[in-house]
Design brief:
Elements lengths: L18 E4 L24 E5 L4 H12 L6 E6 L7 E4 L2 E4 L1 E2 L10 E4 L3 H13 L3 E4 L33 E4 L3 H17 L1 E10 L6 H15 L18 E2 L11 H13 L6 E8 L5 E10 L5 H10 L3 E3 L11 H4 L5 E8 L8 E9 L2 H15 L1
């Protein structure tokens, strides 16, 4: 999840239910076909733990595990002491949320973390010491040179040395949501023509700041429409009917932390310390999917038709690029979807020859930007 300025977090949502159901539905995506046999509980599957299970990404972990029929022999629901004792129904079975402790990882093969950087720093190494493979959604370990930073469609080889059953624990980092969404589209083009410079402008949804920010956007929208003063507990300013620079702390170089994540993580994932990346990250009043304008400068020529064909063949990418009807990707279209959508594919007129392209990318921040990517990593461990 994205960083939230300290001192601006909300308390738990009022009236939150103590029981949540994650039952399979007839509309779930299947990895095989309509006649595939449901896997789920499986004696020879790995034992799982979900850390931060009551949060927005933790809940999405459960949905994606169910959607993809991830095989598991057991699953442990973990959260803070405040959430312990709540009940969750997952795949038609009821579970009690347990308080996170060091002993929580005894016998756990894969631990999915999304409880914030401080929790990851405290409990991630403990889980590894107890033999668990940790897939961490926070920024705690992303830039650690010993920890793979992985997008399965982009750099799966970075974690090729980590497998279940080796008897050793390990850490694998999930990239920032903006980085994942951007590189899903940029990497296929990078492989073909080599990106020398990338300029990214992001339009980021409330979901990046968590469930409380999503609820506040709804609340503010009602308040503004009713002529009331908007409640501003999560952000310092009005969010509804407004946009502003991303709320991450601003560094001495003038970039905020969210922008620098895009810069540093791209270089690590592409294994190219020389690629030039700059970013401007903006918070917009959208519920759960990010959009990004990406300008690319290439070493080799790449025309827009070839780029469009490359993207149509790219795993996890769908092209929505209908100029005649002015139909291009929107956050609403990709919300709750697995694929990242790409459109506005066009030659950059400011660059000579075919050495520059502009593209517009949309992806669900909670899904591919967080939970789905983590579970795809877990699938590669099987």
């Amino acid at each position: 999840m994205e960083a939230i300025m300290s001192g601006h977090r909300c308390n738990s949502l009022p009236g939150a239910a103590t029981t949540t159901t994650f039952a399979p539905t007839s509309t779930r995506r299947r990895r095989a076909n309509a006649f595939s046999v449901r896997m789920g509980l499986k004696e020879d599957g790995p034992s799982l733990a979900v850390v931060g299970v009551t949060g927005a990404v933790g809940q999405e972990f459960l949905r994606v595990l169910s959607d993809r029929d991830f095989p598991y022999k057991s699953i442990r629901m973990l959260a803070s002491k405040r959430s312990a004792g709540k009940y969750l129904t997952f795949d038609d079975k009821e579970y009690v949320v347990e308080e996170l402790t060091p002993e929580s990882f005894d016998g756990i093969d894969i631990a999915l973390f999304s409880a914030g950087g401080s929790i990851s720093k405290q409990f991630g190494p403990i889980a590894v010491q107890r033999g668990s493979i940790v897939v961490d959604n926070s920024s705690a370990f992303r830039m650690d040179e010993k920890v793979p930073l992985v997008i399965p469609e982009v750099n799966p080889d970075a974690m090729a040395h980590i497998k279940i059953g080796s008897g050793k624990g390990a850490l694998i980092a999930n990239p920032n949501c903006s980085t994942i969404i951007c590189l899903m589209a940029a990497t296929p083009l990078h492989r073909h023509a080599k990106v020398l410079r990338m300029v990214v402008s992001t339009y980021q949804a409330a979901s990046g700041a968590g469930a409380a920010a999503m609820e506040e956007l709804v609340q503010q929208t009602r308040e503004v429409l009713e002529g009331k003063q908007p409640t501003c507990n999560i952000f310092k300013q009005q969010y509804a009917f407004n946009l502003f620079s991303h709320n991450a702390p601003v560094l001495s170089n003038g970039y905020n932390e969210e922008e620098m994540k895009l810069v540093k993580e791209t270089r690590k994932i592409w294994n190219d310390p020389n690629v030039k990346v700059t970013a401007t990250c903006i918070r917009v009043p959208v519920m759960r999917a990010h959009a990004e304008s990406v300008n690319l400068q290439f070493e080799k020529p790449l025309d827009e038709d070839t780029a469009r064909d490359i993207l149509k063949r790219a795993a996890g990418v769908v092209v929505i690029d209908d100029r005649a009807s002015n139909h291009f990707p929107t956050p609403l279209e990709v919300s709750s979807k697995d694929d990242v959508a790409v459109g506005r594919i066009r030659h950059d007129l400011s660059q000579d020859g075919n050495h520059g392209l502009d593209i517009f990318v949309c992806g669900d921040q909670i899904r591919k930007g967080a939970a789905l990517n983590a579970i795809q990593i877990a699938e590669m461990l099987l």
